[in-house]
Write a structure and sequence with these properties.
With 277 residues, this protein is α/β, with parallel strands linked by helices. It has a single domain (4-206, 239-249), classed as Alpha-Beta Barrel (TIM Barrel). It has helices spanning 34-46, 62-71, 99-113, 132-144, 158-165, 185-194, 209-221, 226-237, 250-257, 266-273; strands at 4-7, 10-13, 17-18, 51-53, 78-83, 85-89, 92-95, 118-123, 148-154, 170-176, 197-201. α3 (99-113) crosses α4 (132-144).
C-alpha cells in the first residue's frame, strides 16, 4: 500500500493532521492549553506528518496563528487552508462565498501563516446565496495572481466538482466521510477516477451499536484502538484518501498516527466495508 500522494511537485504522507481541534471549545477561541497545542503540531511533524489542514474559520484565526508559531517556515510541510466561512460564536458556522470575502480571507490567511503563497487553498463550503461558479472562479483568479498554488474544494457534490473543473485543475476534495458515514462515496469514486486527493473530515464518525461492537471486536484482534482501525480502513479503502484526524492532545495524536502501521486483513476489510449505516 502506497502511503504517499503526489500533490503537484510535492509528495505528502497520506496520514495528515487536521488542525481544527487545537482551538477552544466549539472551535472557538484559543485552546485551553496553548503550550500543549504547540507541542501537538510539532509532534505531528516529528511523527512524519507533512500535510497540515486548517482554515481561517478555526478559532477563527487561532489555528492558523498557532501553526505559524509552531511550524514556520514549514520546511517540507504542505499547509492547506480554507476560506469561505465566517463565525459568530462557538459551533456557529456561516457560508460566505462572495468573491470580495474570499479575496480578503486569502490575504488574511497569507498574513497569518507568514507566507507569500498558499500551497493548497480550499473553498470551505458552497454558499447558497452566491452562485457556486462565481465563488470558484475567485479561487482560480487568486491562483493566477500567484497567491494560491493549488485549488481545492470542500463539502461538494460530484456535480459541483465537475462544474469547478471547468475553470481549472481541482487537486483535492474535502468532504465528511468515515467508516460509518459514506454519503460521499460517489465523490470519492470520482476523485479516484481522476486522481484527485480526497480528504475525509470527521474520519472517526460514529456508527450504530451493532457497527461499534463489530469495530471493537476487530480492534481487539489487532490490539488497537477503534480510532486506529477506522483510520487504517480509510487508508486501505482508496489510494487517494488522505485522512486528517485532529486532536489537541499529544497522547491522542501518537495513538492516531500508529494507524499508519496497521495492515488490515482482507476478511476484516470486508467486514468493515459492510458496516456503513
Amino acid at each position: 500500500m502506497d502511503m504517499t500522494f503526489k500533490l503537484g511537485d510535492k509528495t505528502i504522507n497520506r496520514l495528515g493532521f487536521g488542525a481544527m481541534r487545537v482551538t477552544g471549545d466549539g472551535v472557538w477561541g484559543p485552546p485551553p492549553d496553548h503550550d500543549e497545542a504547540i507541542k501537538v503540531l510539532q509532534r505531528a511533524v516529528e511523527l512524519g506528518v507533512n500535510f497540515i489542514d486548517t482554515a481561517d474559520a478555526y478559532g477563527p484565526d487561532v489555528s492558523e496563528n498557532l501553526i505559524k508559531e509552531a511550524l514556520h517556515p514549514y520546511k517540507g510541510i504542505v499547509v492547506a487552508t480554507k476560506g469561505g466561512m465566517t463565525r459568530s460564536g462557538p459551533n456557529q458556522w456561516h457560508a460566505d462565498g462572495r468573491p470580495e470575502h474570499i479575496r480578503e480571507a486569502c490575504d488574511a490567511s497569507l498574513n497569518r501563516l507568514g507566507i507569500d503563497q498558499i500551497e493548497l487553498y480550499q473553498f470551505h463550503r458552497p454558499d447558497p446565496n452566491v452562485p457556486f461558479t462565481e465563488s470558484v472562479k475567485t479561487f482560480f483568479d487568486l491562483q493566477q495572481q500567484g497567491k494560491v498554488k493549488h485549488v481545492g474544494l470542500s463539502n461538494v457534490s460530484v456535480e459541483q466538482l465537475q462544474q469547478a473543473m471547468e475553470f481549472g485543475e481541482i487537486v483535492s476534495v474535502q468532504n465528511r466521510y468515515s467508516l460509518f458515514d459514506r454519503d460521499s462515496e460517489d465523490v470519492l469514486e470520482f476523485c479516484e477516477a481522476h486522481g484527485i486527493m480526497f480528504i475525509p473530515w470527521y474520519p472517526i464518525g460514529g456508527g450504530s451499536e451493532f457497527g461499534e461492537h463489530a469495530l471493537e471486536e476487530i480492534a481487539e484482534k489487532y490490539q488497537a484502538a477503534t480510532r486506529q482501525i477506522g483510520i487504517a480502513w480509510l487508508l486501505q479503502h482508496s489510494p487517494v484518501t488522505v485522512p486528517i484526524p485532529g486532536t489537541g492532545s499529544v497522547a491522542h495524536l501518537e495513538e492516531n498516527m500508529k494507524a499508519a502501521d496497521l495492515q488490515l486483513d482482507p476478511e476484516d476489510i470486508d467486514q468493515l466495508d459492510a458496516l456503513a449505516s
